[in-house]
Q: What sequence folds into this?
């Protein structure tokens, strides 16, 4: 069996606050194979973005990262400076809001060239040529003239394409996309998704796609990790998650989106009552139990992990009702 490109075991992220320790990520594990798209999905505040920042070792100073295993192509990313050498070179990230990720005081070209020279080296002329080439690859016309523009001179869709081009400057093997289409209209969303899939096929990229939108997940994912309250509650192939969801939270998320051919016009979509529990302090039992229609007293006890093959879920039930 081929070893995964990225292997994550028992990853935790803790943040000290004035009222206690906030456990943003609570012992999650997953693998990403070469050329695979893994989608991490869940509500806002479930730990998706903290997970991506922990993988890139870009957490805020108040956060502490720990794991029993975190490797990229066999390299131990918990060792000092290993993640620093991989980040930006073999692992790249597209941030959620390009207007804040891009520096408004520098041109697009300056920022792309700086990243390339830092990680790859070579002449500035070669870096400029590479930047223009990547802008063209992501579908931006008049690439040479675009290099002289500032972020505020571009539309939201163009800024997102610039972020993708910048991430691909060094030919990384893993691309982490943190909600890259959230602020875009549906037409631009479709274009960005198509672009990512085309680039993946061309370059052999592995992609971790982070989103709260299961509609996007159904169009791009090979495998899906569902997170809730900092933990993984279900993992499986895209077909397993959408055709036979097993955890009540996954079922509730799917009920909240319209499904072509199944949801009738004018029908009410599902909702999830209640709010995500506090992540401060210890957590006993299933974190979803206060919002779950199937909850029982036993849900306050440690939750077993059930499943078969690549499909696993954390619930007292063999399958959700």
A:
């Amino acid at each position: 069996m081929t070893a995964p490109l990225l292997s994550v075991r028992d990853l935790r992220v803790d943040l000290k606050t004035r009222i206690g320790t906030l456990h943003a990520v609570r012992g999650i594990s997953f693998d990403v194979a070469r050329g695979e798209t893994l989608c991490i999905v869940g509500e806002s505040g479930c730990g998706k973005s903290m997970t991506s920042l922990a993988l890139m070792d870009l957490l805020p100073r108040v956060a502490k990262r720990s794991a029993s295993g975190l490797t990229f192509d066999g390299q131990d990313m918990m060792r000092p400076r290993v993640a620093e050498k991989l980040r930006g070179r073999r692992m790249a990230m597209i941030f959620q809001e390009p207007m804040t990720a891009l520096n408004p005081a520098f041109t697009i070209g300056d920022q792309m060239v700086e990243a390339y020279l830092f990680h790859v080296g070579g002449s500035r002329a070669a870096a400029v040529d590479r930047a223009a080439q990547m802008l063209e690859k992501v579908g931006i016309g008049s690439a040479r003239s675009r290099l002289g523009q500032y972020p505020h001179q571009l539309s939201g869709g163009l800024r997102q394409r610039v972020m993708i081009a910048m991430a691909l400057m060094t030919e990384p093997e893993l691309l982490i996309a943190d909600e890259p289409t959230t602020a875009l209209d549906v037409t631009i969303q479709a274009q960005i998704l198509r672009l990512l899939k085309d680039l993946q096929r061309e370059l052999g990229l592995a992609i971790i796609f982070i989103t709260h939108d299961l509609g996007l997940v159904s169009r791009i994912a090979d495998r899906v990790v569902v997170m809730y309250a900092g933990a993984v509650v279900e993992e499986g192939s895209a077909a397993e998650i959408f055709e036979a969801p097993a955890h009540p939270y996954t079922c509730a998320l799917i009920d909240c989106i319209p499904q072509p051919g199944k949801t009738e016009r004018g029908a009410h979509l599902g909702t999830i009552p209640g709010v995500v529990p506090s992540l401060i302090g210890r957590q006993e039992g299933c974190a979803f139990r206060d919002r779950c229609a199937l909850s029982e007293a036993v849900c306050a006890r440690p939750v077993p992990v059930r499943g078969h093959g690549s499909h696993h879920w954390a619930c007292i039930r063999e399958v959700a009702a």
The chain has two domains: 6-90+172-314, 94-171. The chain has eleven helices and 13 strands. The mean pLDDT is 90.
